[in-house]
Amino acid sequence: MYHLSLKQNISSVNSIPNLEKVILRANTSKPETLSNLSLALQVITGQFPKKNYAKRPLAGFKLKKDQLLGAQITLRKGKMHSFIKNLIFIILPKFVDFKGVPKKNLDTQGNIHFGLTQFFLWPQCEVSYEVFRRPSGFHLSLISKGDLKKKVMIYSYLGLPITEEEIEG
């Protein structure tokens, strides 16, 4: 009688790649639109966003020190898994021209970063179309931990399509 075991090629449980956190960032150049961005992030995730401020002045971007830049949310555990499930199975199929996340969006640590352009595709925001109809988007970072070579495996296991070729837009 043969028993299947997951411990065949795994030296420790910590070497199995898993998703650690999801970071959502929404930045704006107009401080008056930040309330809509914060509200959208809060409705989507069920968590109140943290406000981001400029750390130092940058003349090229017309930034002053402590100027309000955007909002950020970090999701972990249950809220993270719920968000990822909604993203992969409900939101991404709504994009007509979405063919997958290009492999070039992976950084050197194996984390993946990409942006979404519309808030109103989320079921929670569809009801308030007038508030979220402007094409402002947000940036997603999926942070995983584990072996660098196996990190891409976690994204495909979750169902996030990663494409080899560059997508023209």
UniProtKB/TrEMBL annotation:
Keyword Protein transport attributed: no
One Pfam family, short name: Ribosomal_L5_C
Domain named Large ribosomal subunit protein uL5 C-terminal: residues: 69-151
Top-level taxonomic group: Eukaryota
Keyword Amino-acid biosynthesis: no
MF term (GO), any: structural constituent of ribosome
Gene Ontology terms describing biological process: translation
Similarity comment: Belongs to the universal ribosomal protein uL5 family.
Name under which the protein is recorded: Ribosomal protein L5
Organism: Chloropicon laureae
